[in-house]
Specification:
Blueprint lengths: L9 E2 L1 H8 L3 H9 L6 E2 L6 E4 L1 H4 L33
Antiparallel strand pairs: 1-3, 2-3
Helix pairs in contact: 1-2
Protein name: Helix-turn-helix domain protein
Length: 88
């Protein structure tokens, strides 16, 4: 028997999620959107994702650009009412 005959060709949603770091919900959402290849032998059967999907990820992982908080200049905003004692 060849050495690679027992290697896995497909992953479950949970296994794929664990290996990619995406949540299972995200993996299922990407499958529904058609962004991930999968096999399912029938309705309500286990979804199997080919291992090749790990090598060619079709889910774009764009880290969100987090902007630093804007500094508020106390001198630019004026409020109605008397000035607090701690500002004088």
């Amino acid at each position: 028997m060849p050495a690679n005959s027992h290697t896995k060709q497909f992953l479950s949603v949970a296994e794929f999620s664990q290996l990619t770091g995406d949540s299972q919900s995200t993996v299922r959402r990407e499958i529904r959107a058609g962004n991930l290849p999968y096999r399912q032998s029938g309705p309500r059967k286990k979804i199997k994702i080919p291992i090749a999907a790990l090598e060619n990820p079709s889910i774009e992982r764009n880290p969100q650009q987090i902007e630093p908080p804007k500094q508020v200049d106390d001198q630019t905003e004026t409020f109605s009412g008397p000035q607090p004692d701690w500002l004088s």
